[in-house]
């Protein structure tokens, strides 16, 4: 392919596309790992890589052999160490495809536009329950997933599989309920399970006032495509966790917009 010749450098259209794809990959990788422990892990691996080049250049045979053995399994180690980030990356790519971004148009064309309009009606019981729990300062953690993972949730949850209702959510998180500890998982327009034990986030830069509910909500949003609504027991404030990030002091108007978009 004909390109532009700058004597010492020849740039083709393919090179430009290649650079853009690499920049795109770096941008998404940065978004996935910033403010997580993966940054420190990546930095550590980068330091080992530099050390490998240095000892090889200095012909330090013993140390070079040890690092070579470590680097020979580097790809497998990367997959194991960064498994949550790789999962999130694939989910992020899938959620930003053309079909996903334009699903409203596809729904309109194929006659499912009414289902989209009914979404506000479906989330109203959740908003009403959050209003009530905020007023009474009842701690709550509600997780929304697009696909219910039996392996992730069923083993540590009480299966409910019930229609979403304000009273049911309030009764689950009521202080003396045997199910109030843990999270409620909502999927397929149903309360699928309650009292779920979720993995906590490894992010060590969170504010110290964040309790287990906030850390569990952030943690599940890091490792899956789930979003989480957290009601603070101490202050009654509502937080919204998505992709490992948390938005604090969410108003009910904002919560309605967020859930309408993500749920």
From TrEMBL:
Residues 83-252 form the DAC domain. GO terms for molecular function: adenylate cyclase activity; ATP binding; diadenylate cyclase activity. SUPFAM superfamilies: YojJ-like (SSF143597). Its EC number is 2.7.7.85. InterPro entries: C-di-AMP_synthase, CdaA, CdaA_N, DisA, DNA_integrity_DisA_N_sf, DNA_integrity_scan_DisA_N. Keywords: ATP-binding, Cell membrane, Membrane, Nucleotide-binding, Nucleotidyltransferase, Transferase, Transmembrane, Transmembrane helix. It comes from the Bacteria. The chain crosses the membrane at residues 6-30, 37-55, 61-82. It catalyses: 2 ATP = 3',3'-c-di-AMP + 2 diphosphate. GO terms for biological process: cAMP biosynthetic process. Belongs to the adenylate cyclase family. DacA/CdaA subfamily. NCBIfam families: diadenylate cyclase CdaA. Probably a homodimer. PANTHER family: DIADENYLATE CYCLASE (PTHR34185). Catalyzes the condensation of 2 ATP molecules into cyclic di-AMP (c-di-AMP), a second messenger used to regulate differing processes in different bacteria. This is Diadenylate cyclase. It comes from Pedobacter cryoconitis. The gene is dacA.
